[in-house]
Design goal:
Layout: H1 2-5, H2 9-21, H3 24-31, H4 35-49, E1 54-56, E2 61-63, H5 65-85, E3 99-103, H6 106-123, E4 128-132, H7 139-144, E5 150-154, E6 163-170, E7 172-177, H8 189-194, E8 196-200, H9 210-216, E9 223-228, H10 231-240, E10 245-248, H11 249-253, E11 258-261, E12 270-276, H12 278-281, H13 284-296, E13 303-304
Parallel strand pairs: 3-4, 3-5, 8-9
Antiparallel strand pairs: 1-2, 5-12, 6-12, 6-13, 7-10, 7-11
Length: 312
Amino acid sequence: MNNLSRLDLNLLLTLDTLLAERNVTRAAERLNLSQPSVSVQLAKLREVFNDPLLVPAQRGMRPTARADELREPLREALESLGRAVAPSKPFDPAEATTTWRVAAADYAESAILLPALAAIRAAAPHTRLAVVEAVPLRMARQLEQGEVDLFFHTSVGAPAGLHRRVLFHERYVLAGRAGHPRLKRRPTLAQFCALEHVVVSLSGGGFSGPTDEALAEKGLTRRVALSVPHFLFMISVLQTTDMVAMLPERLARGAAGLRVVEAPLEVPGYEMAMLWHERKHRDAGHRWVRERVVEGVGGGFRLGAAGHPPAV
């Protein structure tokens, strides 16, 4: 390490050229330097390696045994460094074998990933996609450390410094099973409150959300009979019981066996966003898959700096 700390890239390049040319004048010409400058650098190299490295010969210079030992390792090191700093190659989806890891809840899987999946598979058939559990508290760390490439979350509370693309604005609708006797038409507010409701509680076991806050402003409450952690189970409950739920519209409209109507009160919606870290921002493959996601959901609104839909 002591010798390495005394070297810089210019000295290593000079040594490599000298070993190839075995002549200070020709080495200077290749390096676009003056002959005295190359001679000064050779003197520094001799000091660092405690070896003459090149000695006068009948024609030009001859490498010492130490210089011969250095030749191949030095050439390999410079070639590796050259590859490291070379411009990145354009991303070719047809040949790519990338594995992308994304964090998404079941809602984001259905509303965001599913619409993009066919296009990704068709254009990049050798790539792989790993969907992992979306845990908002781990978001910043997972993205920073490269554990996930993308994180899908509501556009609220995103950690500072993350890149963000808003994918769409979501609204809530009232849903129940097809043929539900109370959903033949839009219920009144009183009828809405009398129905048995199911909510998704991501924190576990919660029985209230934005819908209850909107009702409270009117001095009203509803009957929340069931709290579940996932939308998939909620939809199964709606399909097989007379319970109802306030669902994100994209999820409700895409689910079979449900009747969807407008709710009798306004519940604030939310923006759904795609988030990623600066470390991946300029990567060609990462840019490509982000574009496919945006196309899959039908566009996006703006760039900026993130969850699951709140329980409703």
